[in-house]
Amino acid sequence: MDYQALLERIEADVAPLVGSGTPAEYIPALAAVDPAQFGMAVADLEGNVFGDWQVPFSAQSITKVFALALALAEGGDGLWERVGREPSGNPFNSLVQLEYENGIPRNPFINAGALVVTDRLQTLTGDASSDLLEFLRAESGNPSLAFDAEVAASEHEHGDRNAAVAHFMASYGNIDNPVPALLDHYFWQCSIEMSCADLARAGLFLARHGLRADGSRLLTRSEAKQINAVMLTCGTYDAAGEFAYRVGLPGKSGVGGGIVAVVPGQCVLAAWSPGLDPHGNSVAAVAALDRFTTLTGLSVF
């Protein structure tokens, strides 16, 4: 498949949508990003990358996929006793369901579930955010990946809802580490800057059924399938059903405007544009991934 020509066609097709939507206003460092930007990349199983992918951006909630993979690899499936695998149907930072469900988040990709995963990773590694960054550097092949201190500070300053969620779960015994330390690791995790190429390469272990870039096994085939399944049903906030309908691939979005999507056994895609729809997903990136699967016929169905 001529990925380069395909991506050039997709970029032209979605150009009218670039700049649509609104950057994440509740994080000032992200609200200031120019929305009239777009990038897209495809990485094949050998790690070759195609597309326009040079601009780095805040990965935000996309990092939750990689934290989940590390927590499962380090600690096994006991994690699922503390977080569910069902779509939430509510905004990603909602407190509502936690009270009804005794402090057990619906899935690992809403904020409550991601906090539980980071808490578990912190217990397992002693330094969750740094461990995650080193993993992403290795899998992306980019040793210069780094935290964005401005974004982390901005999230910390405006992180009252996340603090409330974490304390609420701690009251049910579902958080092991001190909440302030957990929040620090969570905000640093979300601040990691990556390009579309970095994300596409870093996600290849999910397309390779659990195999890392160096050929070692991070996850069993079953665990890789589980993560892909949860991405498909829960990875794009409360618009996961619409994303599955339009794109037909496991995907995870972030409010920095990025989305990563997996074609198991073939490739990983990443698209980025800062303008978000009301659900927190990039308008242009969703359209680009939709166009990719329409043109190629690639999907999990």
Describe the model.
The chain has 301 residues and is an alpha+beta fold. 47% of the residues lie in helices and 10% in strands. It contains 14 helices and seven strands. The strands form two sheets. The protein has a five-stranded antiparallel sheet, sandwiched between helices. The chain has a two-stranded antiparallel ribbon with strand order 3-4. α1 packs across α14. The relative contact order is 0.20. The model has no long low-confidence stretch (mean pLDDT 95).
In short:
The protein has helices at residues 3-14, 28-31, 63-75, 96-100, 111-125, 128-140, 149-157, 160-171, 179-190, 196-202, 204-207, 221-234, 240-246, 283-296, and strands spanning 39-44, 49-52, 57-58, 193-194, 251-253, 258-263, 267-272. A hairpin with a 4-residue loop joins β5 (251-253) and β6. Helix content is 47%, strand content 10%.
